[in-house]
């Protein structure tokens, strides 16, 4: 916390009658006073009291994916968290219906995770993993590998979902080269996909707003059609019944470019940030079949879906489809310390590591890959998932959650509801000439009334911590129904 009182910094205040005693202050003092007056006027709208637990000045932080001007004129601050709730700066409690940003799967400030981080920070704050190692990283990798589909037991640690995606793409290209298929350089993403914000991720991603400002993207990238089909699948409960044939769009791209040019296909099993798009029945299975047929690697981006969000350790397990690589982050450490990972099939790993003479075979990595504090948080988090049966709890609550999501069918402005596991999407009709603004009004009003939701476009996305109870579900959807009835 910054303090602007000079006395608190060890400086004595000027006497109260200073102006009277010195009728004409020296020019330097006068200039200083004028500058201070201007600073005070400039900052008065941004300063808040120390008692509110909020920063003195909001100017320095350039906030991500935020209307910065609006926020800094109307700040909404979170200052504490525990279990299912945040505490706002004004003291009111906010029920977290989004798990932070899809990431706090085990609830906030869990003592087991906090203590693991604290103890590790006092023992080893950092240890490099280039040509050296520390035990926690190896333990975290082993524990994570045990949750992955059979054969995906090689773990590469990153620091975020964006880094995990770029890592997976590089591994795919390295694999093709190592096996003598260096011509396979093309990467296939999907329309409306979100794969993070690094250049690799936005290249294979399909959210136009994330791509348009940046002229330079990866070459040799193409995209499958997205699976959103409201005409046939609106208000589907669980997997939509129509659309498996959309996977055949990969055959079109194979015919267009040639299978011998394609290295990998990357998809989200459930597309989250684009608005909760659930895969049609049979779609992922068909995509796996086509990739296998043409010897193309299949990458599942499970940054959102891993760690219980769909009721299993991975969506691959839930849907019975095994890809060649899985990207992860978010729930891996319950978001307590940034960490991501890529689970790689043994075949892909061994092909790369077995290529050429001894030495480095994958020229890639990050300073913080397998960071001690992140590794400790991951181990403690994975323990919590098992000991508290949180994946199983998500399955147990899925039907009650689905009923609640679809209770909004017929609510004002609602044109679709979607669900899987403990994920929900409520799509709103956009305001004429003002897309996204209706959902944003719902978001702001919900926060002020004690509920944290997430919006993307005109879609409300919900992904609460897996520790929630039925009473929390009732409150989430009761409040949403009230707000939707009230907003224009």
From TrEMBL:
Its cofactor is pyridoxal 5'-phosphate. The keyword Transferase applies. Residues 20-51 are annotated as: Disordered. SUPFAM superfamilies: PLP-dependent transferases. Pfam families: Aminotran_3 (PF00202). InterPro entries: Aminotrans_3 (IPR005814), Aminotrans_3_PPA_site (IPR049704), PyrdxlP-dep_Trfase (IPR015424), PyrdxlP-dep_Trfase_major (IPR015421), PyrdxlP-dep_Trfase_small (IPR015422). One of its GO terms (molecular function) is adenosylmethionine-8-amino-7-oxononanoate transaminase activity. One of its GO terms (biological process) is biotin biosynthetic process. The keyword Disulfide bond does not apply. Keywords: Aminotransferase, Pyridoxal phosphate, Transferase. Belongs to the class-III pyridoxal-phosphate-dependent aminotransferase family. This is Aminotransferase class III-fold pyridoxal phosphate-dependent enzyme. It comes from Alteraurantiacibacter buctensis. The lineage of its organism: Bacteria, Pseudomonadati, Pseudomonadota, Alphaproteobacteria, Sphingomonadales.
